[in-house]
Specification:
- The protein has helices at residues 21-33, 47-58, 94-104, 125-133, 167-177, 195-202, 235-247, 266-273, 318-326, 347-357, 389-399, 421-428, and strands at 2-5, 13-16, 37-41, 62-67, 70-74, 88-89, 110-114, 137-141, 145-151, 159-161, 184-187, 208-210, 213-216, 228-230, 253-259, 277-286, 289-297, 305-306, 331-334, 362-365, 368-372, 382-384, 406-409.
- By secondary structure, it is α/β, with parallel strands linked by helices.
- It folds into two domains: 2-19 and 232-428, Alpha-beta prism (UDP-n-acetylglucosamine1-carboxyvinyl-transferase, Chain), CATH 3.65.10.10; 21-216, Enolpyruvate transferase domain (UDP-n-acetylglucosamine1-carboxyvinyl-transferase, Chain), CATH 3.65.10.10.
- The strands form six sheets. A four-stranded mixed β-sheet has the order 2-15-17-16.
- The radius of gyration is 21 Å and the shape is globular.
- Bound molecules: shikimate-3-phosphate and phosphoenolpyruvate (PEP).
- Shikimate-3-phosphate (S3P) binds at residues 22, 95, 166-169, 171, 193, 315-316, 339.
- Residues 8-423 form the Enolpyruvate transferase domain.
């Protein structure tokens, strides 16, 4: 599917973005493991989360849709999942595959997890290795690639230092560790998103969080309480609209009810450091997660350096930060972000290749990129999504500042995380 986006000088209005993708996956999984019925409001109905939803149903969990975004999950307890009759398809979703592998490794049945062409190229050895040390029996294609075959078994605990700051890896180990009576310790090289920890604690699991580690104390009898959750708007989706409003010439955009959890909100810090005018209003907490309304005004941006521990706190926002950098004065340098090479596509080379088509000066480095700001972009060319939703949406926002717009090929992939992206963008383009 091809998406044509034209120049927009004014971005204005009041919107809400769909529910947080990370929290949506976790609500479905943890709801299924709870003892009783959980109610989820604001679930993201993007394809990634719908894959998790379908897999939980295949594992015997009853999940009822009451209305848009509102679901009842009939939890079966930690030991109530059933063997699925078929292969479990994670589609494009790394979160589904990595979290569910940890969970399924500890069940007393056999499972096979697969995914689309992109997911079958993404590294799974990072979860297979620690889970195998816990006793898991997981078989993969060469180099740890999916499909994965899992012969569920009793897992033991682990003390493990993560080789990368990855919330998927941390969560995968934690889900498996719930089934071990011994203590598990996970040490992080830098803080990654902590939704799993917050939600497990919220469901009554004793979990200790220290500066660089998460500890699941020994326990013979763990169980999860059912919960009610209102999922906040996804800051990773909001980032596209924040960028559109910052780069506009005129207007003002209010985005209501966005999750601003500290471990996720690095984008807001970067946008502010670049000179972006973003007011954080009506801060509150919903289900342990900080939320706020964001008021964004057109801003003159300047280039900065982005590196170190900040990277995991904005990892999915780097393609859209690269778009901000194109229209910032001076140079923006992004370092320590080699993880971008193993996302839905290699996001460093995808951004570099597509920006070069537009005449933007960008240098690709092994762990990041350097972008020189421009005054003016002609556009009028066809660019590619690389089957990556965040690349497609970043290019759509870039198009708003080109004279002749852009045509984005492969835009159907946007539905993995933001099905109404185009509709919402058209609503605020004036
Ligand atoms: O745990 C999660 O929900 C996610 C963690 C991040 O991946 P990594 O754990 O691979 O960094 C992020 O890129 C992904 O979109 C969602
Ligand atoms: C990397 C992403 O997701 P996942 O790893 O779940 O495919 C993303 O949404 O940008």
């Amino acid at each position: 599917m091809v998406l044509k986006i034209n120049r927009a000088r004014k971005i204005e209005g009041e919107i809400e973005v769909p529910g947080d993708k990370s929290i949506s996956h976790r609500s479905l999984i943890l709801g299924a493991l709870a003892e009783g019925e959980s109610q989820i409001k604001g679930l993201l109905e993007g394809e990634d989360c719908l894959c998790t939803l379908k897999i939980m149903q295949q594992l015997g969990v009853e999940i009822k849709k009451e209305k848009a975004g509102r679901y009842l999950v009939k939890g079966r307890g930690l030991n109530g999942l059933q063997e699925a009759a078929d292969v479990l398809d994670c589609g494009n979703s790394g979160t589904s595959m990595r979290l569910l592998t940890g969970l399924l490794a500890a069940q007393d049945f056999y499972s096979v997890l697969t995914g689309d062409k992109s997911l079958r190229k993404r590294p799974m050895a990072r979860i297979i290795n620690p889970l195998s040390s816990m006793g898991a029996q997981i078989y993969s294609r060469k180099k740890g690639l999916a499909p994965l075959t899992i012969l569920g078994t009793q897992l033991t605990s682990i003390e493990y230092e993560l080789p990368v700051a990855s919330a998927q890896l941390k969560s995968s180990i934690l889900l498996g560790a719930l089934y071990s009576p011994k203590e598990t310790v996970i040490i992080e090289p830098a803080i990654s998103r902590d939704h799993t920890e917050k939600m497990l604690q919220g469901a009554g699991i004793d979990l200790q969080i220290e500066a660089d580690r998460v500890i699941l104390p020994a326990s013979c009898q763990r169980h999860l309480n059912p919960f009610q959750i209102q999922i906040p708007g996804d800051i990773s989706s909001a980032a596209f609209f924040i960028a559109a409003a910052l780069l506009a010439e005129k207007g003002e955009l209010l985005i209501k009810n966005v999750g601003i959890n500290q471990t996720r909100s690095g984008f807001l810090e970067v946008a502010a450091a670049m000179g972006g005018q973003i007011e954080i209003l009506n801060q509150t907490k919903a289900a342990g997660e900080a939320t706020a309304d964001l008021l964004i005004k057109p801003s003159q941006l300047k280039g900065i350096e982005i590196a170190g521990d900040l990277i995991p706190r904005l990892i999915d926002e780097i393609p859209i930060i690269a778009v901000l950098a194109v229209f910032a004065e001076g140079k923006t340098i992004i370092k320590d972000a080699a993880e971008l090479r193993v996302k839905e596509t290699d996001r460093i080379s995808a951004v570099a290749a597509e920006f070069k088509k537009l005449g933007i000066k960008i240098t690709e480095n092994p762990d990041g990129m350097e972008i020189q700001g421009v005054d003016h972009l002609t556009g009028g060319v066809k660019v590619e999504s690389y089957h990556d939703h965040r690349i497609a949406m970043s290019l759509a926002i870039l198009a708003l500042r080109t004279c002749d717009g852009l045509t984005i090929a492969g835009s159907e992939i946007i539905k993995t995380s933001f099905p109404d992206f185009k509709k919402l963008l058209e609503k605020v383009m004036k």
